[in-house]
Amino acid sequence: MAMYLQLRVGPVHLLLDALKVHEVMALDGLARGAQSHVQWRDEVLQCLELGPFLQVQAEPATMAVVYSPADEGLPLVLGVCEVLGLRALQPKDWSAMPRLPAASAAFFDAVWLEPQHQRQSFRLRYPLAALALEPGEGGAVDPALVEDLGQD
User: Fold this and answer.
1) Is the bond into 69 cis (omega within 30 degrees of 0)?
2) pLDDT tens for residues 63-89?
3) Contact, 58 vs 81, CB < 8 A?
4) Residue in 141, 1, 151 with CA at minimum distance from that of residue 82
């Protein structure tokens, strides 16, 4: 069994490996600098608002998740709409990814159907060097896919 942090970015639900999450906080509590950087503890980190990055319609991010997308290098601050909590999942809980555009498929490797809410949550790949891209260089999540996901 592994623990995942479930997030919401607009209509898309994501799961991050909880062992790679350093901290969760309000985004407005971070000192912001130029070029999407924020100060976290004694570090200056890249802040990546996932709505615009994944090119999905989403309200402005209000929560920040400090997350390591790879074993080496500094973590990133991910701006998300909502943090839903921890989920304990077993390997049998995951389903294969549906067909996605190549730009979107690079970010996700499995999907979990959350039975009580009838929605799908996508597991972020790890390691994910693609998250080190500059803002605006993210891959689009196909809008038709989002509508078909049974999102809230």
Assistant:
1) no
2) 999 999 998 889 999 999 999 999 999
3) yes
4) 151
Alpha-carbon distances of 68 from 24, 46, 61, 100, 138, rounded to whole Å: 13, 11, 19, 24, 17
Please indicate, yes or no, if residue 152 is contained in any of the structural domains: no
Question: Is 132 domain-assigned?
Answer: yes
What letter does residue 53 receive in the DSSP assignment? Answer: H
Token digits of residue 130:
């693609």
For the stretch 45-56, what's the b/e string if a residue is b when 16 or more beta carbons lie within 10 angstroms of its beta carbon? bbbbbbbbbbbb
Range of the domain at 135: 2-147
For 24-118, where are the alpha helices, taking DSSP H only?
50-54, 102-105
pLDDT at position 152 is 38
Which one, of 41, 28, 32, lies nearest residue 75 by Cα?
A: 41
**DSSP-H helix ranges across the chain:** 50-54, 102-105, 143-147
pTM greater than the 0.85 cutoff: no
Could you tell me how many residues make up the chain? 152
- Does a structural domain hold residue 82? yes
How many structural domains is the chain composed of?
1
